[in-house]
Amino acid sequence: MGGDEGTHFGARTVPLAEKQGMVDGVFRSVARRYDLMNDLMSFGLHRAWKDALVTAVNPPRSDRDFVLLDLAGGTGDVALRVARAGGPGVRVIVCDINADMLDLGAERALKQGLDDRVAFEQGNAEALRYPDRSFDCVTVAFGIRNVPRMDAALREAARVLKFGGRFLCLEFSSVDVPGLDLLYELYSFQVIPRIGQAVAGDRAAYQYLVESIRRFPRPDVFARMMEAAGFRRVSFTAMSGGIVALHSGWRL
């Protein structure tokens, strides 16, 4: 693909080759306030949504080997939840392109005594360095929309999954409750950036994040993208009136 190909960065159209660096800048800015950012953007519900993701992962509670790859999961929130929910055979690799986020996640794993079961590695979701059929499960929570080439990241996720492995993607979606959609739109575009300015001193980063949600494909469209990448038995479950959706697909 040519470097002059256009893509979306929030509401703006930018050269595809430049988007990753711009996204990195956003997350360097918010890394230390990432949990606060998620609270602001989800009314604090992101914890319950991530619990639903971990339930779907269903890590074995025995000593059976189970290796999970968490993409764009730098702060380790999902990875640490999976490690705590599973038994001693569960291992998690967090792969994120942003070193600041990974550093924060590694600090958390060490403090929680899980650094022997959760590893943090820098990498690009569009070109993973892991061998084919390496993982029992691949997850990504609130990160896929920030990848410049989502189709490439989906193909890579399918490639590194073992046969019978599952891909789970938790992402903001399209509110489908009349009235709630307008309220959420107002909150997202008028309130969140102002709170971001007041709390984090960075209105632009929060503006990008809410705009990126609006650019993300509707659940049925994303499901077709997953099928095109090679996933089977693709499905999605809307939660909280459609504010988020949990997407599922299998390597079969």
Structure description:
This protein is α/β, with parallel strands linked by helices and 252 residues long. The chain has 9 helices and 9 strands. The chain has a 7-stranded mixed beta sheet, sandwiched between helices. Strand 6, helix 6 and strand 7 form a beta-alpha-beta unit. The protein is globular.
Short description:
By secondary structure, this protein is an alpha/beta fold.
Main features:
two-stranded antiparallel ribbon; 7-stranded mixed sheet; 252 residues; alpha/beta; single chain
Any chance you could write out the topology, listing elements then pairs?
Layout: E1 6-9, E2 12-15, H1 16-30, H2 34-42, H3 46-57, E3 66-71, H4 77-85, E4 90-96, H5 99-111, E5 118-122, E6 135-141, H6 150-160, E7 161-172, H7 180-200, H8 203-215, H9 219-228, E8 232-239, E9 244-250
Parallel strand pairs: 3-4, 3-6, 4-5, 6-7
Antiparallel strand pairs: 1-2, 7-9, 8-9
Helix pairs in contact: 1-8, 3-4, 7-8
